[in-house]
Design a protein that fits this description.
Blueprint: E1 3-7, E2 10-12, E3 18-25, E4 33-39, E5 46-51, E6 58-60, E7 68-73, E8 78-83, E9 92-99, E10 103-105, E11 109-113
Parallel strand pairs: 2-11
Antiparallel strand pairs: 1-3, 3-8, 4-5, 4-9, 5-6, 7-8, 9-10, 9-11
């Protein structure tokens, strides 16, 4: 049974930082391309960042470039998202996503940025 469990969300003031984690089980983590998505109230889910399974290449949505960093630790089956200089518009539920031949989603973790 595949599980993706996110943690690290919470409330933070604008300009603050959070680090999200996603622990995977039931799959060969190193073989999966991993991503973070987010969904704000009333909006569609959007891709935030992706990291490949092969060469570690990363991609980011323009709105987070220079502020967010995606990384992975294959030995720990864990995906990370370091979020710095957070803005109110970053408020959303953040989801971990794994894809190879099949795709899996985590349950999400809430990030709220407000003063």
């Amino acid at each position: 049974q595949v599980q993706l469990v996110e943690s690290g969300g919470g409330w933070v003031q604008p300009g603050g930082s959070l680090r999200l984690s996603c622990v995977a089980s039931g799959l060969t983590f190193s073989s999966f391309s991993m991503s973070w998505y987010r969904q704000a109230p009333g909006k569609e889910r959007e891709l935030v960042a992706r990291i490949s399974s092969t060469d570690g290449r990363t991609n980011y949505v323009d709105s987070v470039k220079g502020r967010f960093t995606i990384s992975r630790d294959n030995a720990k089956n864990t995906l990370y998202l370091q979020m710095n200089s957070l803005k109110p518009e970053d408020t959303a539920v953040y989801y971990c996503y794994a894809v190879q031949l099949r795709a899996y989603w985590g349950q999400g973790t809430q990030v709220t940025v407000s003063s």
